[in-house]
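User: Teach me something about this protein's shape.
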Amino acid sequence: HINAVGPALLVPSAKLRGLKVVFTHHGPDYDREKWGRLAKAMLRLGERLGVRYADELIVISDVIRNIVKDKYGRTQKVHLIYNGVPSPEICDYPEYFSSLGIESGKYVLGMCRFVPEKRLHDLVEACRGLEGYKLVLAGDADFEDDYSRRLKADAKESGAVLTGFIRGRKLHSLLSHAACYVLPSSHEGLPIALLEAMSYKCKVLVSDIPANLEVGLGDGNYFHCGDVADLREKLNAVLLSPGEVQYDMTKYDWDRIARQVFEVYEH
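Assistant: First, the predicted structure itself:
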């Protein structure tokens, strides 16, 4: 079982060894801004080889299913199986919140890697002057570069709180008490961070790229990707909206997903 278009370069090699191959396409990684021309060419080649030669193909969204159909004409043995998220671990962590200088329900959460295509710089700009709420950015760059250094400098200058990479109780507590989770990305496969925020019943606001639209949120939960003014306007509206939110997370349940993958293995 080979995951992602980069490792899919090995699909023909596995086939030559007589192995049955399942390939999961997680999204067109060659669209990520961090890759140069050579890397993008290799990722496109991996996609082509994986889609062409894998015995069974799993896609994590309708967007990706359309890619393999439109680009490569493959419609047989293609299985739509979504990403999954575990059950939420609702918790409090007052000591951690105190160390960050934040209050429950009084912060906007951005949670992702610090890379250009996540467009956290748009979120930092949109939250400048936001009254009554702080911006909390959970995450960091895998490898420090000019973009991540500039993002962190701008975020600190604007008054945002930077947590670095976190997990466990710290992460669960931030998800449990966020006023809103925002994902401004220009590129996603099917965003696990968004699904995780939804599992915690967070109010969410995301860019209107195809992968996010497929999640099927309301119109008020989307803003035009790259449009800081629209992001700011929609964020204020979400923060002012009353009541709790509910999402149908059935198709993102790991037990269901495991059964679906096992059925693919049995083909």
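Now, about its shape. The mean pLDDT is 95. Residues 37-53 form the longest helix (17 residues). If you'd like, I can walk through any region in more detail.
User: That's plenty for now, thanks!
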